[in-house]
Amino acid sequence: MTTARRVRFGFSLVETVISALIVGVALVAALNTLGGVEAARVRSVDRVRAGLLADGLIAEICGQAYEESGTTTLVLGPEAGEKIGTSRAAFDDVDDYNGLNDKPPCGRDGSAMGDYSGWRIQAAAAWVNPVSLNNSLTETGYKLITVTVTTPAGESVSRLTLSAKGASGLIKIDLGGGKLVISAL
Ligand SMILES: [Ca+2]
Ligand SMILES: [Ca+2]
Q1: What spacing in Å lies between the alpha carbon of 96 and ligand 1's midpoint?
Q2: If you measure from the C-alpha of residue 71 to the centroid of ligand 2, how many angstroms do you get, rounded to a whole number?
Q3: How far separated are the first and last CA of the chain, in Å rounded?
Q4: Which of the chain's ends, N or C, has fewer CB atoms near its CB within 10 Å?
Q5: How far is the CA of 72 from the centre of ligand 2 (A)?
């Protein structure tokens, strides 16, 4: 039998190296894709968690009075003695939450919420024009409360509520999906 007709079995070293490189590149691409899918899933779950966290604080705020009893509010925020560390136990009107900035988020008693390391929750209150919702430096009879939760990835989710002086309840403003939806609570 001549050399030219000899049958060759197996792969050469060069073929083996090239095959390994191709498999390696394909594996890295697959892992990158899986990593991207997992990161997107985590972000999606965190957005939902952020919304629920913001809804929880909005619900707490909605249980408060429009203003401090027996006094005229000149500065939005907690009254003297109401702000005790991160505790909100003494808060009794909706603008007491103005300036709240907890990282991680805390319960009403001031204790840090578990499983929220790296998260931040903030609240702001402002007098607003009831039609334009533009801020006002003086009392208008309406306060817009904004609660914003920021995830560890830096994404922010906000919820707003409008408190009206003398109203029996608050109005919830939902900006979900880019649409403004106003409903009575
Ligand atoms: Ca107060
Ligand atoms: Ca206050």
Answers
A1: 5
A2: 10
A3: 94
A4: N
A5: 10
